[in-house]
Amino acid sequence: MKFAVVVLACVLAAANAQFNRANAFASFGAPQNQYRYKPVPAPPRPDPVRVSPRVVADARNAQVLKYGNEINPDGSYSYFYETDNGIAAQEQGTPRNFGGNPPVVPDVAQGSFSWTSPEGQVVSISYVADENGYQPQGDAIPTPPPVPAQIARALEYIARNSRK
Fold first, then answer.
1. In angstroms, rounded to a whole number, what is the distance separating the alpha carbons of residues 5 and 51?
2. Residues 34, 22: contact at Cβ < 8 Å?
3. Which of 53, 87, 127, 155 measures 20 to 30 Å from 60, CA to CA?
């Protein structure tokens, strides 16, 4: 019981010291308001720089210039949009029946999208998505280097001399 009273006294002493901090130093001549919050006015903000929206635009504030969306009863669809920061996209899709049990009828899509790079170049990608997968084409897609002549000869040798 004595132990509980001692622990309670310690907790009360710690709480008193924490919450009555302004009065703790009053007897030593310290100012009473030293821990009070004193707001400081914010410095004035400079005027924003005006920038042409076609050169550099914030994607969060882009405005839609054109938009269209059509879904037909047979499952075909098409959509397009264009924004004022140089982003544009369009796609058409139609269902294609591949048969099977149950029948497999995925949409076959083709379309394109483009945007303006930070350097000011228009980047455009066109694509087809069908039974052969997603097949993009465009100048921005990296291409592998040609196979060196020595490797090509080695692959031909392996193909000729492999057991069948």
1. 70
2. yes
3. 127
Domain ranges of the chain: 1-38, 59-137
Amino acid identity for residue 75 in this structure: G
- Give per-residue pLDDT as tens, 45-87: 444 434 333 444 566 788 888 999 999 998 889 999 998 888 8
- In angstroms, the CA 30 to CA 24 distance is 9
pLDDT confidence of residue 84:
86
Check if the beta carbon of residue 82 is closer than 8 Å to that of residue 88: yes
Peptide bond between residue 102 and the one before it cis (omega within 30 degrees of 0): yes
pTM of the predicted model, to two decimals? 0.52
For residue 161, what are its two tokens?
């001399």
Sheet of 88-95: strand order equals: 64-71, 77-83, 88-95, 107-116, 122-130, 133-137
